[in-house]
Amino acid sequence: MNENKQAEIIDTSRLIIKKGSKSFATAAKIFDEETRDNAYMLYAWCRHCDDVIDNQELGFNNKPQTAETTQKILAELREKTQAAIDNIPSEDQVFEGLRYVLKRNEIPGRYPLELLEGFAMDATAHKYRSMEDTLQYCYYVAGVVGIMMAYVMGTRNPVALQRATDLGIAFQLTNISRDIIEDAQVGRIYLPADWLTEAGIPAAEITEAKHSLKLAKVVERLLNEADRYYNSANEGLRALGFRSAWAVATARDIYRAISETVRKRGQTAWQQRVIIRKRRKLLGIAEGMLDAARASLFDRHKTPTPREKGLWTAPPLH
């Protein structure tokens, strides 16, 4: 890829992340230039795949489409992604950016394909009967993104990759807690069915106000699970350079702020979309810097804390 074409792809990717995820865009600014550019291109591919599967734009305005159309789109995504994995140049900026990122960072092709498996679960209206099912989905759509980002940041250690998975899972559990009503309105319920049954909430009635208090208690339980994965992910900071650790810690703090807001609002959490204001993001940047400094200067030389037993574990990561 020549420099002019690469610069054009990076500029396009930067605009996509700026519009599609302000939280990640804030954290990404902290990376060194090369890591940031790779993160932009990887995010642009992830966002594109999610959008075309759901017939939406930058995560919003989901429009119904036939199952046949969705399957055709999924097959095309798999074909183009496999071509990027095989290092075949593309005229499509998104996939050319992916090709560059995979090659430059030696990311195994398994991971982008696994992300598409997560999108396939959405496309087929997959049912989540237990927390195990929900966590597997979180791994596919967010855990593997954490792994790929760890590669972009120069990490290959399997232990560190597992912690990156934990952070991705935590992020997705937070997303689920925030978007429950929006997701249910388009037929997607990621909360474990057995949890809803225990709480006395029929899946078909999850959006009804009469269940809001019960739903808040289920979400509290979900966020408690997210906390376990956030805490586990903290150990991964020591494997990163200072600026990468700072960016990751910032993203973590901003997302935990989303969790905290959902938890605090209780049964009113879904009356208005949770948005993290600039002041809170700035606090996240400051807290992230302190956590990165601690990880780089002190934690790196300590014996790592063992990963908590019972956390969901993906197949071998290398």
Topology summary:
Layout: H1 3-20, H2 22-28, H3 33-54, H4 67-85, H5 93-105, H6 110-123, H7 131-152, H8 158-185, H9 193-199, H10 212-233, H11 242-265, H12 278-297
Average pLDDT across residues?
Answer: 91
Q: Characterize the largest beta sheet: strand count, sense, and whether it forms a barrel.
A: none
Query: Which topology of the largest domain does CATH recognise?
Result: Farnesyl Diphosphate Synthase
Task: Kindly give the count of domains.
Answer: 2
The secondary-structure class comes to mainly alpha
Kindly report the name of the CATH homologous superfamily of the largest domain.
Answer: Farnesyl Diphosphate Synthase
CATH architecture assignment of the largest domain? Orthogonal Bundle
Give a quick rundown of the structure.
It is built from 12 helices and no strands. It is mainly alpha-helical. The protein has 2 domains: 1-107, no CATH class; 127-318, Farnesyl Diphosphate Synthase, CATH 1.10.600.10.
Describe this structure in words.
The chain is an all-alpha fold. The protein has two domains: about 1-105, no CATH class; about 125-318, Farnesyl Diphosphate Synthase (Orthogonal Bundle). Helix content is about 70%, strand content about 0%. It contains twelve helices and no strands. Helix 3 runs antiparallel to helix 4 (about 65-85) and helix 4 (about 65-85) packs antiparallel against helix 6. It is globular and about 60 Å long.
